[in-house]
Predict the 3D structure of the following.
Amino acid sequence: QVNLVQTGGGSAQPGGTLTLSCADSEEPLEHLAIGWFRLALGKEREGFSCESESDGLYSADSVKVRFTIYRDNPKGTLYLQMNSLKPEDPAVYYCAKGLRTVADYGPDYWGKGTLVTVSS
């Protein structure tokens, strides 16, 4: 059974930094597509950062340059480094992985989500 355990998140000030992690210690990430999605109040779910061997890296304009997705394949862990947080970034953030590009085909597995807030 796949269990993606999310850690990190919380609150930061505008311009601040947070790091999210998402781990499944039972399965390395080699050859798997990964991604981060977020769901903000009153908005549709956004797949803003995804990476796969077949399609490379995708980063939505809303987070480009500020957010970085990366992975540790042997540890089965993916990360999201969030810099220069903005007031429009608060949301529940979900990690995801799958056999195919998660932004196009949807993930096979989801994390449970972690809340990120930005306030001064």
